[in-house]
Design goal:
By secondary structure, this protein is α+β, with helices and mostly antiparallel strands. It has 2 domains: 137 residues, Roll (Pnp Oxidase, Chain A); 37 residues, no CATH class. Helix content is 30%, strand content 24%. The protein contains 8 helices and 7 strands. Strands 2-1-5-6-7-4-3 form a 7-stranded antiparallel β-sheet, with helices on one face. Strand 3 and strand 4 form a beta hairpin. The longest helix has 14 residues. The mean pLDDT is 91.
Amino acid sequence: MIESLGQLRALYAAPGERAARKQLQRLDTHGQRFVARSPFCVIATGGQGGALLDASPRGGAPGFVKVADDGATLLLPDAGGNNRLDTLENLLADPRASLIFMIPGMDETLRVNGTARLREEPAFRDAFAHERQRPKLVIEIAVREAYLHCAKAFMRSQLWQPGTWSPRDAMPSMGQMLRDQIGAVVATETQDEMLVRYRAQLDSEQAPSA
């Protein structure tokens, strides 16, 4: 069992100069363009008193996360979800946040670490007035570290290669899995029925025409 930094480092070579130097303190032109083209990211947060970490997927049209202050700040609108508020409650207790941005078909990813505040002021919410839905609040992230991550994980997984994808019916529907996990409180619903319901919810978020 590895129990010390010395034991761990003995297993691996030292990082190369490029890996060590690529970390930036803000988003440069390339990082800003990456965010502007990304329709999906995952945000990781930690809770109070040693609570387990949480990672939450977030998505929207490319550029749904906005870059401000010449790459020093990210603005992530909070979209409707299951109302558990895991991410938001965590950030109230611990402002640290880490994000990974993805662009479909691109094997490189962008990693951003920083600290976050929850902003409900009209100036922040109005920045997304013409998006699908004006958010109830915006997660304002002060960028502290940003760097591009290499393509190896996506190349190994062949994530963007449709020929490697498992068919959806290899797994039960979400409704079936939840019913098995928590019982009859979950209504019987096929995968297609669930997608229709989700689509109706997404359509209801559509922002009114200006």
